[in-house]
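## retry 2 of 3
previous attempt timed out at serialization; input unchanged, resubmitting
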Amino acid sequence: LASLYPDTPPWQRQMLAVGGGHDIMLQQHGNAHGLPALVLHGGPGSGCSPLLRRVFDPQRFRIICVDQRGAGASRPRGGIEHNTTAHLIDDLRRVRAALGIDNWFVAGGSWGATLALAYAAEEPTAVSALLLRSSFLARAEDIAWFFGGAHDEAPQEWARLAPLAPDADLLPWFAATLRDGNDEAQRQAALAWWQWEQALARTQAPAPDDDDTVRALIDRYRVQSHYLISGCFLADRPLLQRCADVPRVPTLLLHGTADRICRTEGARLLQLALPHAQLRWIDGAGHDPTHPGMV
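## retry succeeded, writing output
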């Protein structure tokens, strides 16, 4: 982490009303006259973190961090009504117009990379460059992979972490529980999801136990399950097809060779769909953006 830039306080922080009962949090860091860089967080539902903006030189970049609908400091947190990929793309149009930006450098990891590509396909003249880490194609097989499609330990681990979940159809159970379950059921579901993520990422963080953190996880995974069960609202035109409309701007794909959350196959297919893009493999890195090679 020593090579990350120091975090800087925001010089602007505002809520932007975007309709449908949603207000999204917008923060700007770094150089107000620098190169505009839009930072898209993952999840969906995770919210922006200091780590995501610390890859940018605050002397050079105008760093724009947006908490997507239902995520982070946006309101209502965990809200899934009027919350689709199309809504998020429209929100980014509103942000760019509100800030008076002609075009910006767009960076995102995992779901953030998915949204960056979907946005670039819709607004090609607004994107000057793309930095995409741990790309996620949001296909049915990619979603099934996360829930254990190719992980030998999946059945027994899910049975231990989420004993009330059915052996099959984990995602519908999570989505229904995180949307309509009682407090304890939602808590158990969120912690099971979190622990499974930690296992896949091979991280050793202790399980959260304070109410505020767990409540935030419930809201985060409610949004994430809402998107995943709907194919991230990209089924009508899959992401790889949308790549035909992505502008031929400088594009860098970064992917860890040991990523067990977003498959390496996705990065290969994405590079084929974006022949102008450079694909750089990070040897030994998983999904964790703090891996030294990824940093």
